[in-house]
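During the no-cost extension, the postdoctoral fellow (Dr. R.K.) reprocessed legacy sequence entries with the updated structure-token encoder. One reprocessed record is reproduced below for audit purposes.
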Amino acid sequence: MATGLLLVRLVFGLLMAAHGSQKIFGWFGGYGLTGTGTFFEQLGFRPGRLFAAAAGWTEFLGGLLLAVGLGGPIGPAFIVSVMIVALVSVHRGHGLFAATNGIEVPLLYAAGAAALAFTGSGQYSLDALLGVTSMWTTRHAEIAVGLAALGAIASLTVRQSAVPSRVHA
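Re-encoded structure tokens follow.
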């Protein structure tokens, strides 16, 4: 079980950290804060650059915490939060599957992160190395995932209407 958790945490966490680095640094073919900020403005998140930085850093740090197994449910909760926002603001209305830009990928990330929040980091983690795994209880996971959902709802609540397409006369 410990090896399986390590494998899932590493792949899942490093992919999420890379996803965040696309937004923050423009790595791996990403658009960086300026390009991502422009996209966020079109989605109604203003100021776009600030929301892009928040999303990027949440993905990056959440992914790293998950990958190394530090902070119990905190890293997975960060991922849950941004994936709820992505699911609602970008992917909803496009069906289920990724081929149509549907909710499949953010739903998988959110569900997987929530499951890992409740499962724990496992034997091969920094939490285990530091001897703090026992401090992360199911109740802590419930709180972390609940706060993640509330944070996502707060972000979606302050979202303004999408920017209309410009029509040149």
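The mean pLDDT is 94. The chain is about 70% helix and 0% strand. The remaining legacy entries will be reprocessed before the final report is submitted.
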